[in-house]
Design brief:
The chain has helices at 20-28, 36-42, 48-51, 61-71, 90-98, 111-119, 138-148, 161-169, 199-203, 249-259, 276-282, 299-308, 342-349, 365-377, and strands at residues 8-13, 31-34, 55-57, 77-82, 103-106, 128-130, 150-154, 179-185, 193-197, 211-217, 265-270, 288-294, 313-317, 332-335, 357-362, 381-387, 390-395, 398-403, 407-413. The chain has 414 residues and is of the alpha/beta class. The strands form 4 sheets. It has a 7-stranded mixed sheet with strand order 13-12-11-14-15-19-16, sandwiched between helices. It has a 5-stranded parallel sheet with strand order 3-2-4-1-5, with helices on both faces. Strand 12 (288-294), helix 12 (299-308) and strand 13 (313-317) form a beta-alpha-beta unit. The N and C termini lie far apart (59 Å).
Length: 414
């Protein structure tokens, strides 16, 4: 006969009455483990007086897990958690440690479900960022917010709503005035409260714990672009540039194709100009980090980043390779301009072991020859294509084809 396996029952509390099955588990468990904060919540349940002698109050997570490890071999244990234990809760960690066979989950409502019901918003497609015990990352927050227009944010004492709001204010971005915050204080307690405020108002007040928030962005107040729904195919006329000084649409498409971008990677765009390559790449995935490197004016790049709402591009003003030393190492590099220092840049790049593909554009035979020779000498697999683009134009009431300057695209792979 197989030996009985003792169980860890993880029960969410806070909002709904306990179901019959949960009451039975509480009665049969040898221990009921709970945090001091949830202990106060549990006192409002009818079964509390019946089972209070079994309650073990433990504050720290590591101590809680240690107690369970010590006693689970001989006892069934119930662990009380807040809301849904699998919504960024202890359920995930417990299954990882004790295994699926030993753990049973009985959820209550999550704080997200409860909060959305109070403000009468649907939860379809709303993602969650947890800064509970994690550093607040403004760029991650902004990228997700632009993509989804609403976010649930799990907070803690350090990353409280007001502290997060203060960090956002320091970015001094215009779109921030279009944020709306729903702060949920002490959900499930008698003094639960919902506070609706803008960014400045959140930054200037404090909030009772526990709390979490939902942040929404009204994109109707932001500048619209012609192709706001496309992820690839921005046109030259949509990108701010000076007198034709921009990578043409057809050339840009070929360059990005040659880069073979992973979904998550670091890309350097050296000689970024107006930022057209950087912006087009960044819009593929918020997990792509792009450095737009330009030794000249960066005003156009910054204007275009704001226009397209792109937040995963970091602009570096400086001359390559000197300004590349402290950047995150790239997986892909495009060189659109080298300022006469192509050999130095390539020599710097080939030493980066994680760099797998270098793509560069060349208009002169000298640049083309130098690039091919260097890449081949360093063991790269090299391929080259020449693009000659001819566009249909109408002039004097008639149609003509007008040729653009031909360009070479060189790629080195390893």
């Amino acid at each position: 006969m197989a030996e009985k396996m003792n169980k860890l029952y993880i029960v969410g509390i806070g909002f709904k009455p306990l179901e019959k099955k949960v009451i039975e588990l509480l009665l049969k468990s040898s221990f009921i483990v709970i945090s001091p904060r949830l202990h106060e919540v549990f006192k409002k349940y009818e079964i509390y007086d019946t089972v209070k002698e079994k309650i073990v109050e433990i504050k720290k997570l590591e101590d809680t897990l240690g107690f369970i490890k010590e006693h689970l071999l001989k006892n069934d244990i119930t662990l009380l958690a807040s809301g849904d234990p699998l919504y960024f809760g202890i359920g995930v960690k417990a299954i990882e440690i004790f295994g699926e066979e030993r753990v049973e989950i009985y959820p209550d409502l999550s704080c997200l479900q409860k909060g959305l019901s109070l403000i009468k918003k649907n939860w379809h497609g709303i993602p969650t960022l947890s800064f509970h015990g994690r550093p607040f990352e403004p760029k991650s927050f902004i990228n997700m917010l632009f993509k989804h227009e609403k976010l649930a944010i799990l907070t803690d004492t350090a990353n409280s709503p007001d502290n997060i709001a203060k960090k956002m204010l320091s970015l001094n971005e215009n779109f921030l005035k279009n944020l709306k915050f729903y702060i949920f204080e002490r959900l499930g307690y008698e003094d639960e409260k919902v506070i609706i405020a803008n960014l400045a108002e959140v930054a200037n007040q404090s909030f009772k714990e526990p709390n979490f928030m939902i942040v929404t962005l009204d994109n109707s107040k932001n500048e619209k672009i012609l192709n706001e729904d496309c992820i690839f195919g921005i046109e030259e006329r949509e990108i701010n540039h000076i007198s034709g000084m921009i990578t043409k649409d057809e050339i840009r498409a070929c360059i990005i194709h040659k880069l073979r971008l992973p979904k998550k990677c670091v890309v350097w765009d050296i000689g970024a100009g107006s930022g057209s390559i950087s912006i087009e790449i960044a819009r593929f995935s918020e997990d792509i980090k792009v450095y737009a490197i330009e030794k000249g004016s960066i005003d156009l790049i910054e204007d275009n980043l704001k226009k397209f709402g792109v937040k995963n591009v970091e602009v570096i003003k400086g001359e390559a390779p000197d300004c590349l030393i402290n950047l995150l190492e790239p997986d892909r590099v495009f060189i659109g301009g080298s300022g006469g220092r192509l050999s130095e840049i390539l020599n710097f790049l080939y030493k980066i072991s994680q760099l797998k593909i270098i793509v560069l554009s060349a208009v002169s035979m000298e640049t083309l020859e130098n690039a091919i020779n260097f890449l081949e000498e360093k063991g790269f697999e090299v391929d080259v294509c020449q693009l000659s683009v001819t566009r249909l134009e109408k002039k004097y009431g008639r149609r003509f084809f007008k040729a653009l300057n031909p360009i070479f695209i060189v790629r080195g792979k390893r």
